[in-house]
Amino acid sequence: MDEILRGLIEALRLIGAGDAELGEIVFLSLRVSGLALLISTLIGVPVGVALGLTRTRAHGLITAILYTGMGLPPVVVGLFVYLMLSRSGPFGLLGWLFTPSAMIAAQTIIALPLVMGLTMTAVRSVDPALRIQVRSLGATAVQEAWAVLVEARIGVVAAIVAAFGGIISEVGAVMLVGGNILGKTRVLTTAIVLNTRQGEFALAIALGVILLALAFAANVALLRLQGKT
Amino acid sequence: MYQLTNLRHTYGTRTVLDLPTLAVREGEILALVGPSGAGKSTLLRLLNFLETPTSGIIHFAGQTINGAAPLALRRQVTTVFQRPVLRRASVRANVDYGLRLRGRHDDGRVDAMLEEVGLAALAKQSAQTLSGGEMQRVALARALVIEPRVLLLDEPTANLDPYNVGLIEEIIRGQNVRHGTTSVIVTHNVFQAKRLAHRVGLMLNGSLIELADTATFFSAPSDPRTAAFVRGEMVY
């Protein structure tokens, strides 16, 4: 209990002191997960809507693949991205390994199936009569898809929230492809692992509290957006 | 307005509609009656170009439609369905919706429409909080605000109270008289068909059994099944 209490106090002290190193870690965490979320949303929402609106023979297979993707172990994704970006890998020339770019790529792979799959489910849950009604009022195919997306917005925002929660808190992938290099690729989760290993429990707890607070703030912001739309 | 020739529509191996010929005249109110599964709603979906017939020809407004109808033609027709599907938005935003789809803004027309359906006072209220009758009036206003040449109505007053039935019938009639809007109404209520329509058709098992002007349909039907239906007997 003492460790937890000291951790909480340490968290407040670090935040209050405006610690530069901590600021860098928090900023990098938000940059990596924020960009991964943005890319996943820009790709995942339109694809999820398209999958939700169409019924093909491969529907069952696509759903199974997406749902499997939603449960991808981050460490496996990290291993895959590591092999792709290593010197001998097909994308080795990019020189991304142990840089934030590799971390963004890995987190995008983790977040994308979540955004896609949950958006698809949200779109499929919209009353099919709405599409017929909107088409009957003279909507184009794009207007029809937009109308469905607007009706499914609560589920779509939930998809984005779930994806953000998944990537801001994952450690396996960013640890493997980022390397936890101080000042370069160290994010909150990898810093927590490092400090725990070194016995710096108070600092690890402090970082954990900050991570939770960030996740909470991001979710509140997204939920407010959900309410406004 | 419409000329349908050898129109046939199937779902899998089941033929749900088989119409050798049917003409819908410009400016008329045509009522289609008949039991469930007769093909009435399928016919409305084809008239609204929401589905493409399996075979046959649809002439609409002087054009022959092959395959998917062009947007410009589709936008001349709209349907009010039995169950109004409204967006999670205000009454006003719902009524305005068809205009916005067309990139048009006409607050005056939306206001006039809300007034006509008796919902001006509820304009800012969420459409999801309305009663069934009020929702259907929103759906009707949403359809009429775009000034369609053809208004299709699929059992628009089913399950509504007499007050709302009367109000909706009055709006449909008024639209037809003032603007010459061609209307095709599917109804199970033969009395409604009698009150509203210029011509009435009986459909059974995907076929049009009889089509006649309203007076003839009810007083001197030529087909015994029509006579039985008008008397309120079961017909199959």
Written description of the protein model:
The complex is a heterodimer of chains A (229) and B (236). Chain A is mostly helical. Chain A is built from 11 helices and no strands. In chain A, helix 1 (2-17) crosses helix 11 and helix 8 (153-168) packs antiparallel against helix 11 (201-228). The termini of chain A are far apart. The model of chain A has no long low-confidence stretch (mean pLDDT 90). Chain B is α/β, with parallel strands linked by helices and 236 residues long. Chain B has helices at residues 40-47, 71-74, 91-101, 107-116, 132-144, 162-179, 190-196, 214-219, 224-230; strands at 2-11, 14-24, 29-33, 55-60, 63-65, 77-80, 150-154, 182-186, 199-204, 207-213. Chain B has a 6-stranded mixed sheet with strand order 6-7-8-3-9-10, sandwiched between helices. In chain B, strands 2-1-4-5 form a 4-stranded antiparallel sheet, with helices on one face. In chain B, a hairpin with a 2-residue loop joins strand 1 (2-11) and strand 2 (14-24). The two termini of chain B are 30 Å apart.
